[in-house]
Amino acid sequence: MIRLPFWPTAVAAASTLFVFALLATLFGAADLGLQNSFHALVSGTGDDTGILWNIRLPRVAVGLLVGAHLAVAGHLLQQATRNPLTDPNVLGISGGAMLAVMIYLLATVYWSATDGSKLASYPVAPLPFVALAGGLAAATLTYLIAWRRGAAPLRLVLAGIAVGLTFQALGLGIFAAWGSTRMETVLLWLSGSLYARGWEHALHLLPWTVLGFAVLPLMVAKLDLLSIGDEAARTLGIHVGAIRLSAVALATVLASSAVAIVGPLGFVGLIVPHAARRLVGPSLARSLPISALLGAGLVTLGDLIGRVVAPPAEIPVGAVTALIGVPIFLMLLGRRI
Known about the structure:
Elements: H1 6-26, H2 34-43, H3 49-81, H4 93-108, H5 126-146, H6 153-178, H7 183-190, H8 199-225, H9 230-235, H10 240-262, H11 268-280, H12 284-308, H13 317-334
Helix pairs in contact: 1-3, 1-12, 3-8, 3-10, 3-11, 3-12, 4-5, 4-6, 4-10, 5-6, 5-10, 8-10, 11-12, 11-13, 12-13
């Protein structure tokens, strides 16, 4: 297969991402008119300024960050497990983060609330920490179950599936037992949505983006060597167990913080790494940045489609990414990845 050169591909991906972000800012459920929207966006004045700068722009910013988080997390997990079907959902990370956040929201916010419309009023700052605790608990449990003189990739995937299903079953059990009108707001979060996400959400997610992407270059070269096999990597002086654990831990941080803000989004971490590798090759130094750009673009485009296809109703971005992801996933399977 012909590989594209990195820099032209990166520029094209970044340019496409900019176009998606601009369209997602200018268009939405409220028809403001293209000329008025563009004028309000550029000048910062006019009746539509509040909608653009306080509702749509922060929503786009959150989508960009979340998409990059999930795509890079999936890429790291696929490399660490040498399994092309791995993503944060498969290893149970999303399930652990989801369960922790749901318990937190139900226990601390909705337990005594009488108003079911509390979606915009829950505290955002603790959520990444709560989700990280749940994601780390799930990842640790997956590792413990898979451990047998080391954590082989296949055992990690099988253990992750079992842990993820268990956590999801626990979450659904709690959710079903709650039984009140407040289920609607929790259900919206569980569907994976950017609805009502503002600057507060973006600012609380950004430190985790900076932290995760700052650590990434430290492990890329060693993680790349896992593709030649564990034994071959050991002969080159690579501590396979440590670098695999580090990759899973970093993926857990990125995926959990994203899930905390928007809920679980399917297929982003699964299909985007494949697209990146097909474009620029398997080297992590080239494919990881492309994954981040493509993941941000997929979530931004998915949210835009969900907002404009049937206004004023909105389709959660998680449903749109699933609809986009399923045919791509089937195509990848048809080509045996």
